[in-house]
Amino acid sequence: MWIVKLGGSLAHDARVVLWLAMLAELGGGRVTIVPGGGTFADAVRASQRHWHFADLPAHNMAVLAMAQTAHLFHALEPRLTLAPDEAGIRRALHAGHPALWLPFGVLRDAPDLLTSWDVTSDSLALWLARVLNAERLILVKGCAVPAGSTFAELATLGVLDARFDAWSRDAPFPIEVVECDAMEHVRDALLGRCAYRPPVALARVVASRSSGQGSVRPRRKPAA
Fold it and tell me: I need a labelling partner for 203 at 20 to 30 A (CA). Which of 97, 163, 195, 197 fits?
């Protein structure tokens, strides 16, 4: 199974329609899409700055922002199957459909490792990839991804969130961060035409997987 996270900023990019169509066509039974929060999450940040409420409700509002993006993606590409939890994702994939995650399972009643702006949809995609024992995680960005960057460097640039680098260090699957223009190379990889080495900027895990230092395995929440 591949997890493909489509950045929320792509919700206003015409290329997202091409990505969704490609994943709907080729991802049946194999691909789960994680939506970013995009402008919906930006509205949560603006509201928190104005009202100064705690990170726990902000986290839950941001999760619902991701769900709004999921519904937008589904409206643009109805061949995707909305799935609210692990069981729903596995049912969709077993039926031969690509899954589109509604992240209600990461709503929280009390603060934990997820309820911070250090954790955005990037780290939640990594969390889901661990829960589902994914083969690969691909993060698709609407911004530039400088070639050869580490995850820590991408966090400094604001491309990834602050928690992603530490959480990725013992990941048992490859992780790529690619620009939106990498779609044809992802398509070829899904078709098995080539090893996945897109000639656009990407980043890979560079920390030692054996040491596990600084890594945190996000708590698994049972399916509702």
Answer: 97
